[in-house]
Amino acid sequence: MTTALSIVNSPLVSLRNVGKTFDSGTVALAGLNLDIREGEFVSLLGPSGCGKSTALRIVAGLGTATEGSVAWAGGAAGDIGFVFQEPTLMPWADVAANVRLPLKLAHADPAAADQAVAQALARVALSDFAHSYPRELSGGMEMRVSIARALVTEPQLLLLDEPFAALDEITRFRLNNDLLAVWQELRRTVVFVTHSVFESVYLSQRIVVMTPRPGRVFTEIAIDAPFPRDERFRTSAGYAGYCRTVSDALGAAMAGAAA
Ligand SMILES: Nc1ncnc2c1ncn2[C@@H]1O[C@H](COP(=O)(O)OP(=O)(O)OP(=O)(O)O)[C@@H](O)[C@H]1O
Ligand SMILES: [Mg+2]
User: Fold this and answer.
1) Domain locations along the chain
2) Which of 15, 34, 52 to mutate to test the pocket of ligand 1 (most atoms within 8 A of CB)?
3) What is the pLDDT of residue 257?
4) What's the CATH number for 2-78+156-258?
5) 216: alpha, beta or left, given left = phi > 0 and alpha = psi -120 to 50?
6) Among 47, 74, 153, 245, which is least packed, fewest CB within 10 Å?
7) Which of 21, 22, 29, 200 to mutate for ligand 1's pocket (most ligand atoms within 8 Å of CB)?
């Protein structure tokens, strides 16, 4: 049901024939065609170095394509929240000030900003830690702060670059659930980069499997399981089946490149 919906939804961002060659001569992306559809949860899955971060940065406008085009529905780029692999918090500022940063940079009205910060912290269950400092937080809590900071402007598009890769499994599972809850509540578009087959299947409506460098789309797999997803899904035969399918696709993408 959800998958069928995501297929009919119109693209929010369309990458056409996108290529990226760095000044060093490294060709990171070549012929990348990707539609990011309004409201969907899509993962980019691929081996280390295949260009996932490069692609995400191009969507975010943090990097430019050297070939092809990136087009937004309606013409202009929408508001973006970006979550990096490292939480990248300001160590000298407390949690609330870290989350407030995007609003401060945008010169938001202070009272409205207070409210938005409180709401973003509540969404990631950190209301009680507003006045703590990053050094007082666990790795999982730091990542929650980073997610709250990305959500505080209620962006149209949330981009996450392997946000949970450094966390232990239990924390990662919990943050996976929290992220899905936020997505379901806000109904924004999420692009999630990972190299974990298991994580991509658990979270996504659609998985885009990339080839090794230069990265492009090898295949796409719809994960047609309902939301909310929970531990029952994680231990189901359906989940295991999808993991096998996606793992096989990733293997084929690697083999194709080696041939
Ligand atoms: N600023 C840069 N200058 C030169 N080469 C770069 C730069 N950034 C990335 N690359 C190269 O481009 C390729 C793709 O890098 P990218 O970081 O996009 O991969 P990735 O899929 O995100 O990998 P990982 O899963 O390890 O994060 C790599 O070969 C990398 O060395
Ligand atoms: Mg990367």
Assistant:
1) 2-78+156-258, 93-154
2) 52
3) 61
4) 3.40.50.300
5) beta
6) 74
7) 22
